[in-house]
Amino acid sequence: MFRLFSIVLLLPLLFCSEASSFVIQTGQSSTGQVVQLHWSNNTARNGIPFFIDSRGSDDISDKNALFNVLRASFKVWEAPATTHVRFNDRGLLDAPSINSRDRQNTVSFDETGTLVGAPPGAGVIAVTRVSSDDRTGEILDADLVFNGRDFRFAIGDPGTIRSPVIDLQATTTHEIGHILGIDHTGLIGTAARRPVMNPFDNSGSSGSGRVLKLDDIAAVGYLYPSDAFIGLGRISGTIKRSDGTGAFGVHVVAYDESGNFVVSGLSGYRTGRGGGGEYALVGLPPGSYTVGIEPLNGQVTSANFGGIFSQSFDTNFTAKFYDNAPDRTQASALRVQAGQDVSGISFSTGPITSGFPVIQNPVLPANTPDPAGPYTVQATVSDDKGLSKVTLFYRTGAGSYVALAMRSGLSGSYAADIPGQSRGTTIEYYLEATDTDGHVSAYPAGNASHLFLKVLNPTGRPLAYVALRTSNAVSVLDTGTDPSTSMEVARIPVGQDPIALTITPDEKLICVSNTVGKTVTLIETATNRIVATIPVGNDPVDLIASPDGHFLYVNNTSSSSVSVIDLDRRVETRKISVRASSSASSPPGPYGIAVSPDGKRLYVTAINDNAVVTLDLASGAEIARIPVVTQPRSLALSPDGKRLYVTGLTDGAGVSVINTATNQADTKVSVAATARSFDVAVSPDGRTTYVTDYTNNLIVIDAAAGQVRQVIPVPGQNTRGIAVSSDGSSVYMTNQDSDNMVILDAGTLRVLRTVQLSQGPRDIVFRNQSGINVFAGAFDFDADGVMGISDFFLFATAFGTSAGKTGYNARFDFNLDSQIGFPDFFLFADQFGKKTR
Questions:
Q1: DSSP 8-class letter at 182
Q2: Whole-prediction pTM value?
Q3: Of 711, 326, 726, 369, which is closest to residue 527 (Cα–Cα)?
């Protein structure tokens, strides 16, 4: 009895989240047995035969070069020392049939769409159909078909192959993985880390899609192991739900000592849904690893897998690490020896009945510039019989621990408030729960260190905020720190896949778009607290605040809309529709965004229509649709609002300059033929426009002349975000794939500093009032909604005092200089008589 798998490679996504797993194509026989697809051992050792369609591709005239690329892609999978698999090149066939029972494994191009079977615009680049024995999982036939009707293919230097043209060698290498029996991986991170078997096209990534990663190597070694693979280690265990049943499709990842993922898997790989939730991480070289679980509910879901893994996954849980740690840095390390199985490393997706209290889902304060406090710590605590107490212990310096009873809330939540501390203080703390049987659990668990919170002492220089896309966090950098030390002073966890930032005009809020999470996170700059998480549309990308600071506009790229958020009430109030082409297969936009200085007009890019759309914010009506460079991505207004700069993603597209008075693109700035302009920023004086070319260059444009003044190579990979300091002296750029930020002197255009960051840095914004306590209501001491005379009397009682003296109160020290004096009075006087809202 035959079973047919049909697996497709899809058009590349423009928004990516990072997760990881190698998965074997897994089916279920007529008797209910779970079987993994594989070629017989003899066939794999002697060579899996394949034929190539002699007609080749209409896109590639040199057929010999084409055939050599296809053959080279098969060789890639033979190369790892940990596998014995081989292929047998049987030569060319004239017009082969695509028949799952003919035992002729073929590679062909479908120029009409009759064989691929997908409708035009579906984004299917290639299809591999794998036929197997239903009882044993043995693969009997595999046919690979490229969609030549909808896509153009190219061979040659991968650095010259640009979207929408597809790198044939990268695509072929991916599809051969399916021929071997390997399903898709969940990893969609940066190109340098992304396994070949991710479900989306990897073209335009300088050849990384042609090279097997550790995840791919582990998969082919697992299916067709050599002696070298047998000598590697593994980590195994089970994933259980809160009711003790086996969890299915939970994503388990092993990380090395540097924090890089090595290999991973999905739970239920042996018994399927309804089984014991078993998992195994194989192919691990000897070393130390940390292991975590997370839900696959982002861009990659069960819809990207076949067989039993096409069923819905367990996703309603929070990511965690062994042993019950909230992040990798606090996880217990596991030592793996050669050939060893470190078994029994098990997890629960929810509260477990272990006989001991379980502390999970912590919400921990980020390092903060706020000396007033309090600093709230939250967690969910459960026990199978009942809890007698939950306590937070904290201390400063080498002092004794202070115990705070944590107050209980809804659904097993507990919270405690650490009181405010003076700037420069480091707070050490941990949680402890005791059940009615006297069993005690601590958090962090096991041998992990305690938690630390720093009350920051800003240098007074501007703070830079950087979206860390793959780390699901925002990094806070003090630009005034000593170059020999780290600039990062805080890291704030936000939503899933943060990509863009904006700051409100009063600098009280940082707003973050989370593309996979479909939310916007609001961060209070004076405390680094998350004060709101607001649902928006699909794939929120760029965002911007209104000039008066009352509204936030968010582009929902895959929903063809703009969300309007009332920042005073912190809710979405409406969506503005942005008409886009219905024929394109990629997300229609809008992408880039800008707002006029008077707050009456909004500008967004319609990437598929090669246009910028001008919207009337009062009515939501479209005012104009302005033709610009191809695939317009990012927008930036000149300081006077008269010129709007538009970048174009395609090779050599250049930069359009729109006259906002006439809604016409008056100028196009030409760039190099290979330049792919992404982000754009304008100097404070409006004389210079800076554009990132994500082939690792900075394009410097003379705004008056409308010409490129200079092109500066940027050290790093995949240059994306850009910002200019408020005084115009420095230019900051992020490199998404090399995880760093480069700072240039704007005058000399020389690199001043390269700052290493966590994974996936993207957008950058500055807060210039870093040394001033400007959070909402800071001057409204009696909380009556007005900064008035009663607040003045409260302030006056502390006037003239300094830190450590009687009467000093940090909440009156607005400029954070450890004394309450005239600078603080002048700041208060500026707000006197105003309302907090």
A1: B
A2: 0.70
A3: 369
